[in-house]
Amino acid sequence: MPAIPLRPIGVFDSGLGGLTVVRQLRRLLPHEEILYLGDLAHLPYGTKSTDEIRRRSEECARFLLKKGTKALVIACNSASSVASKVLSEKLPIPVLNVITPAVEEALASTRNFRIGVIATYATIASGSYTKALQARCPEAEYFLEACPLFVPLAEEGWLEDAIAFGTARRYLGPMKKKNIDTLILGCTHYPLLEKVIGKVMGKKVRLIDSAVPTALKLKALLASHGILYPRPRRAALKIFVTDFVRNFLRIGESFLGERLKNAQLVEVA
Amino acid sequence: MPAIPLRPIGVFDSGLGGLTVVRQLRRLLPHEEILYLGDLAHLPYGTKSTDEIRRRSEECARFLLKKGTKALVIACNSASSVASKVLSEKLPIPVLNVITPAVEEALASTRNFRIGVIATYATIASGSYTKALQARCPEAEYFLEACPLFVPLAEEGWLEDAIAFGTARRYLGPMKKKNIDTLILGCTHYPLLEKVIGKVMGKKVRLIDSAVPTALKLKALLASHGILYPRPRRAALKIFVTDFVRNFLRIGESFLGERLKNAQLVEVA
After folding, report:
1. Is A187 among the residues known to form the active site?
2. Nearest in space to B187 (alpha carbons), one of B49, B63, B67, B81
3. Active-site residue A76, yes or no?
4. Do B244 and A167 touch (CB under 8 A)?
5. Which residues in chain B are closer than 8 Å to A125, comparing Cβ atoms?
6. Farthest CA pair distance, chain B
7. Which of A39, A40, A160, A167 to mutate to test the interface with B (most CBs of B within 10 A)?
8. pLDDT of B27
9. Fold of the domain spanning A9-97+212-265
10. A151, A169, A214, B28: most buried, per Cβ within 10 A?
């Protein structure tokens, strides 16, 4: 019998948003140990230049690699946009971003081939969703919209009030007129606003939270490499952060969906 | 006749918000050359730890000092909160923050000695407004409120719509019941929302934009040191940034109130 692979999965993000990805990893791969690195000293990545985001992503990846991770998930759309390719080339382990699984899921799901994407300005400006979608299905029509206020709304916990609805209506109004049937939530904060987004868009539009297809894709990838942890257990989750932020526990736990224990402050050059 | 002091005034902030301070410096000290450093690669300071904000502030101050500045304005409330004292002690030039002038102006202005302060979470948590106010007038009553959504609203340019009003009403509702007559805008982004804040608070409440008393205090300080530029001229403004952000020009110009030319990308360790 071969040895059981004990190495953990590494996940990083600029902040706490990536914990919505960890939440689905914990649900769909409960036996895998997870190391999460939140680069809070340098958040948000969304407003940084491409070079700066790449530099930070490499530092985060190196930190997790030193801790023995067997696979890396870039749980940040800004970093997925601009650093995924370079990390895949440089690192000796499988690297997943959150964009490709969401795009594949959206194309598998759509019936009228009219797909929307909402994300930060940086993610949209990077063109990575458009490129990834058009490379797979140039015939479909795509509609993109930046929704920068959704991040502070998620962090304030203003998830279902008049301001959240007003903001969602303002951002999604143009999108609603496009008759899309699938909408990608292209920012890890946005799943917290799923309810208002769903109400504004209506029941006929399916929302894609990239965390779910990302977790399923990772599971398949680990299995194909023979490095899936094969025994039932409730595996550990270790949280590292490069700084703390206000309301760290409240925000972190609302994103993660479980208690956030023992977050450890670390330096990542 | 003594030589004319040619050295510029240095101003720094984590982002572009400090340009609302530069706007008033340009208005009230039009003959002074100004160097502005926006540490955009590390914004926002508001979510960073005290140590991290101090480290960044020292780097910014050193950069401006090397360029020959004769006086330094910390045009960022988070940095003013935690780095003003240490910079005053370490640097060989006069250092002004934006908190002290606002506090002095509020106390000079109030008649009922009930003063409100709105700011980011970090600035309020630092306690610097409370300390500065209570040190000067322990008998007055002070009311503080964090308004984190005001920053993205200012940057989106959503300054007078239903969402801006709804957000202002939600944040300022408790403050309005306190019967204050003076409200300090404790974040450099907030002057852009002066109209909605004013409408929500009512005409009897005077809003203090710290940029104005800061500019007046700097003028008096330069005069007392004999380093005020004594001749009429339209002096230069030089902008340095450590990174660019989305909508750099639109946001920068709306804060500065004039064309934003020749911003230069620099590295600040």
Report:
1. yes
2. B81
3. yes
4. no
5. 246
6. 59
7. A167
8. 94
9. Rossmann fold (3.40.50)
10. A214
State mean pLDDT over A166-193.
96
Q: Does ipTM come in above 0.85?
A: no
Contact between chains at B243 and A52 (C-beta distance less than 8 A): yes
**pLDDT, tens digit (0-9, with 9 covering 90-100), for A50-108:** 888 999 999 999 999 999 999 999 999 989 988 999 999 999 999 999 999 999 999 99
Chain B residues with CB inside 8 Å of A49's CB?
A: 41, 243-244
Nearest-CA residue of chain B relative to A42? B42
Nearest to A244 among B49, B151, B170 (CB): B49
Predicted pLDDT at B2: 57
Q: What region does B260 belong to: left with phi over 0, alpha with psi -120 to 50, or beta? A: beta
Does this chain's domain B9-97+212-265 share its CATH topology with B100-209? yes
The answer, yes or no, to whether residue B249 has pLDDT greater than 90, is no
| Residue of chain B whose alpha carbon sits nearest to that of A265 | B49
CA distances from B43 to A82, A124, A211, B14, B34 (A): 19, 20, 27, 5, 21
Cβ contact (<8 Å) for B47 and A245? yes
Mean pLDDT score of chain A: 93
Sequence-distant (6+) residues with CB within 8 A of B57 are B12, B74, B79, B82, B83, B86, B87
Q: Between residues A44 and A258, which one has the greater pLDDT? A: A258
CA A109 – CA B148 distance, rounded (Å): 37
Query: Which three-class secondary structure state does DSSP give residue B238?
Result: strand
Beta-carbon separation of B166 and A163 below 8 A: yes
pTM of structure: 0.83
- Domains of chain B, by residue range, sit at 9-97+212-265, 100-209
What are φ and ψ of residue B71, in 5° steps? -155, 150
pLDDT digits (tens, 9 = 90+) for B69-128: 999 999 999 899 889 999 999 999 999 999 999 999 999 999 999 999 999 887 888 898
> Interior CA angle at B22 toward B17 and B8, to 5°?
130
**Is 3.40.50.1860 the CATH classification of the domain at B100-209?**
yes
Question: B120: nearest CA in chain A?
Answer: A246
* Interval B210-222 mean pLDDT: 96
Looking at beta carbons, which residues of chain B come within 8 Å of A249? Answer: none
* Nearest chain A alpha carbon to B164: A163
Binary contact (A122, B246; C-beta < 8 A): yes
Q: Average pLDDT for residues B157-161, to the nearest whole number?
A: 94
Min Cα separation B49/chain A (Å): 7
Q: What digits encode the pLDDT tens for the residues A229-254?
A: 988 888 999 999 998 777 788 899 99
The pLDDT-based confidence of B244 (bands split at 50, 70, 90) is confident
Cα A234 from Cα A253, distance rounded (Å): 18
Q: Which of A60, A76, A137, A147 is catalytic?
A: A76
Give the DSSP H/E element, type plus range, for residue A146.
strand A141-146
